[in-house]
Specification:
Blueprint (H helix, E strand, L loop, with lengths): L1 E9 L2 E6 L2 E6 L3 H12 L7 E9 L4 H14 L3 E5 L5 H20 L10 H18 L8 E5 L6 H8 L4 E5 L7 H4 L4 H11 L4 E4 L2 H15 L2 E3 L2 E4 L2 E7 L6 H5 L5 H13 L4 E8 L6 H14 L7 E8 L6 H21 L7 E5 L4 H10 L2 E4 L8 H9 L5 E5 L12 E3 L4 H13 L2 H17 L2 H22 L2 E2 L2 H13 L3 E5 L19 H12 L3 E6 L4 H8 L5 E4 L4 E3 L5 E3 L7 H15 L4 E4 L3 E5 L7 H16 L5 E6 L2 E6 L4 H12 L3 E6 L5 H6 L6 E6 L8 E3 L5 H9 L9
Parallel strand pairs: 1-4, 1-6, 4-5, 6-7, 7-8, 8-11, 12-13, 12-15, 13-14, 15-16, 16-17, 18-30, 19-20, 19-28, 20-21, 28-29, 29-30
Antiparallel strand pairs: 2-3, 9-10, 10-11, 21-22, 22-23, 24-25, 25-27, 26-27
Bound molecules: GDP-alpha-D-glucose (GDG).
């Protein structure tokens, strides 16, 4: 049982005061209706949530809140905690209109030229995020579930986590996460701070697959986070990134066809524009919505398809927004001028092509327009999702046609819309014509398919899915939580070792049996280690394998005369005890010629780095580079390689200070399974330190009496962990009572 705390910059309502009369007005944003619908519909289903609280900034005075608080909290399914105390108006201004809406908003929507990178904006952003954290921290319990929303609060997950590491924290970004080429334009320190902030969450959600990938790429490059598909390992925690395309309250919109007031208003509209097709659009006034391009497309359409003149009206409803920001106010003037030009050019005595309104519509009006419209023209230049597109489809009862920008997040789900490039007026103009001449059956077919999809993944599913994934990540974290090998575990391992008849010991070399050295060729095993391994392998019941990324020749030189199994190049070559080397991969070497020039280029760009070539792999090492340069270059190389090897049988491994390219299809996991299946041991101990060793740990996860140990901190699939390489031989020595003269752990 836990509390669910929703945190967003704005509260889901505002308070209006006229003299002594105070009234509460629900906000119209997508998030508000999503969460409200979930609370209304999921009450009986979700018994694990005991209390729901919504926290946000109050845009009304404290005394107004006191006047409505009791009624509001009794009436709603959730309690509200408004945050007051922004006596420093400039601070809030710099945070909200400044950093949030004049840096993050334009940049994340690919309008980088509009971003104003002012240091005081960023300072204010930090301060207001800290203010949220300070207000919330004393109220939180470790078993609370926190869901933080949107770009205004990107630092909050980490700030809350710092004070209360146990919390379940989800973060959802409602706007696009841009490609790294855009994100990188932020000053270096800001990039880091923002990403570290978000990474305080356990689950991070986006609307589309692209945004998920862009985010993962940015955290890899900027924070050097290890990733495994959509799982990120960050500061010893598993963080999951996933897509959750927000839905709409399908039932609410779809059932408006049964509302007589709405239908009457729809009929009036139709009558008003008798014998004319209606093309409708409604947007906040925002440069991302593509209003100017849309007007140009309408002009092009009226020029190119003159047969539609006097037979179509474009109802363009623009909702006031952020008009204190100059970039917004300028656009308004431009748009209104353009509307004047188009209307002036094409109007007749009895007809005007564009009906423009700069106002907020009430719900009934909006629904009547959705129903009356023969087509909806939704052409943002960028949009996280765009709910108007989904609402129009959900509402439509007569098979309206949706013309949708391919740059809106919604385009990835609404494939049956007429998808257009919003700045290509030929494309948009053509689509308007297609929509207006589309046969009834085709319209109905398209809309029915989309409605089915919206019905299946509605807003209640969206919220439910996110919260369920959040609890799954928490469970996975507990599973992944590494247990440091202590006396009790050593005792248990020792008992198991002694009782067993066939023991399989699978040992990585670099970073496990031997310390990491600056130059790999210098990590030569000393006599003590060789003697230790000889003794270990001499015991009848022991089957010892050294499993390494190194080349067979090197392993042969070092351990060739010991009674061991050797696995080279992550399983590409295997030499079983007493047998000859067997090469598992037989692919011509030519692929290396494609990769080598790129690695050479990076060697030149990064002093101290070098290339290592093995039989089946080629690697770029950056252990010996200065400061953070090696790491920065490694992220770039990773990026280039990933693109270069697309659709090839190669894979790139982001190892410990090394980027390696190799043939896919074999890894240490595959290799250990072969060995274990052949030996059928009743005790398996596998130790490794590197990312490539995770494959072994995962492969052995389900086997009984198989114990996996990771050397060093970091999330891992291993059952146990030991802190440093220096503890490996003493541990083995203690278990096996071998003759190694190391210190006890
Ligand atoms: C963010 C992201 C993402 C609009 N005008 C009127 C009105 N609306 C309602 C619509 C719709 C909502 O406002 C606008 O939808 P958006 O999708 O643009 O939502 P935002 O919250 O502004 O934006 C966006 C969204 O978050 C959800 O994640 O889709 O990409 O930018 O619900 O119906 N409602 C009424 N009168 C209006 O004049 N009643």
């Amino acid at each position: 049982m836990s509390r669910l705390i929703i945190i967003s910059n704005r509260l889901p309502f505002s308070i209006d005061r006229e003299g002594d009369k105070i009234s509460v007005r629900q906000s119209s944003g997508g998030l508000v209706s999503a969460i409200k619908s979930y609370f209304e519909n999921a009450n009986d289903r979700d018994k694990t949530i005991t209390e729901k609280l919504w926290v946000g900034v109050a845009d009304f005075p404290r005394q107004d809140w006191q006047a409505v608080e009791q009624e509001q909290n009794e009436h709603e399914d959730f309690k509200v905690l408004p945050l007051f105390a922004f006596s420093d108006k400039q601070l809030y201004e710099d945070y909200y209109n400044g950093f949030s809406n004049s840096v993050l908003w334009p940049l994340f929507h690919y309008f980088s030229s509009l971003a104003e990178f002012k240091a005081n904006y960023f300072d204010a952003y930090i301060k207001v995020n800290l203010f949220f954290a300070d207000q919330l921290t004393p109220l939180l319990h470790p078993d609370d579930t926190i869901w933080i929303h949107d770009y205004q609060l990107m630092l909050l997950p980490q700030l809350l986590r710092g004070e209360n590491p146990e919390l379940s924290i989800g973060f959802f970004l409602h706007i696009p996460f841009p490609s790294y080429e855009i994100f990188r334009l932020l000053p270096t320190e800001w990039k880091k701070t923002l990403l570290q902030g978000i990474m305080g969450a356990d689950l991070i959600g986006f609307h589309t697959h692209d945004y998920v990938q862009h985010f993962i790429q940015s955290v890899k490059i900027v924070l050097g986070v290890d990733t495994y598909f959509q799982n990120l390992q960050y500061q010893d925690r598993l963080v999951k990134v996933d897509l959750f395309p927000i839905g709409v309250d399908f039932k609410k919109f779809n059932s408006t066809r049964n509302d007589p007031t709405i239908m009457r208003m729809r009929d009036d509209l139709k009558k008003n524009f008798e014998h004319k097709k209606i093309v409708f659009s409604v947007d906040r006034l925002d440069y991302t919505k593509g209003l100017m391009s849309r007007l140009m497309a309408i002009e092009y359409f009226l020029n190119t398809y003159p047969q539609w003149r006097e037979r179509v009206v474009f109802i363009l409803n623009v909702v006031p927004s952020r008009d204190t920001i100059k970039a917004y106010d300028d656009r308004k003037k431009e748009i209104e001028e353009k509307i004047g030009t188009v209307n002036g050019k094409f109007s007749t005595i009895s007809w005007q092509p564009i009906i423009y309104r700069y106002n907020h519509l009430n719900f009934t009006e909006l629904m009547a327009l959705y129903h009356a419209a023969d087509a909806a023209l939704v052409t943002p230049l960028r949009d996280g999702m765009n709910l108007v597109a989904k609402e129009y489809v959900a509402t439509s009862s007569e098979g309206g046609v949706l013309i949708l920008s391919e740059l809106a997040g919604a385009a990835s789900e609404l494939n049956e819309a007429l998808l257009v490039n919003p700045i290509d007026m030929v494309d948009v103009g053509g689509a308007i014509n297609r929509a207006l001449i589309m046969p009834e059956a085709e319209k109905r077919n398209r809309i029915t398919i989309m409605q089915k999809r919206l019905q299946d993944y509605d807003v209640v599913r969206w919220v439910g899915d996110f919260l369920e994934q959040l609890s799954i990540v928490k469970r996975e974290q507990q599973k992944f939580e590494v247990r440091v090998v202590d006396e009790r575990i050593v005792g248990m391992l020792k008992d198991q070792y002694e009782e067993s008849h066939k023991r399989c010991l699978l040992l990585d070399y670099d970073g496990t049996l031997a310390p990491i050295t600056r130059i790999p060729s210098q990590a030569i095993p000393n006599k003590q280690l060789i003697d230790f391994l000889r003794n270990l392998a001499a015991e009848d019941r022991n089957y010892v394998t050294i499993i390494s990324g190194r080349e067979g020749d090197v392993l042969e030189k070092w351990f060739g005369d010991l009674p061991l199994t050797l696995v080279a190049e992550h399983g590409a070559s295997i030499k079983k005890k007493g047998e000859a080397w067997r090469h598992e991969v037989s692919v011509a070497d030519k692929w290396k010629d494609q990769i080598r020039p790129l690695l050479k280029f990076f060697v030149n760009r990064c002093a101290g780095s070098f290339i290592e070539e093995k039989r089946n792999t080629i690697a770029w090492h950056y252990r010996n580079t200065q400061g953070g340069l090696g790491f920065t270059r490694s992220r770039e190389l990773l990026n280039n390689l990933t693109q270069l090897i697309q659709n090839s049988p190669l894979q790139v491994v982001d190892g410990n200070k090394v980027i390696e390219v190799r043939i896919s299809g074999f890894d240490k996991g595959v290799a250990v399974l072969k060995i274990v299946n052949e030996i059928s041991p009743d005790f398996t101990l596998c130790i490794g330190d590197d990312i490539t060793d995770e494959d072994m740990f995962k492969a052995l996860e389900q086997r009984t009496r198989a114990y996996t140990i990771k050397v060093g901190y970091g999330s891992t699939a291993a059952k146990y962990t030991i802190i440093s390489q220096a503890q490996v031989l003493p541990l083995l020595d203690h278990l096996t009572e071998n003759a190694y003269a190391g210190s006890q752990i």
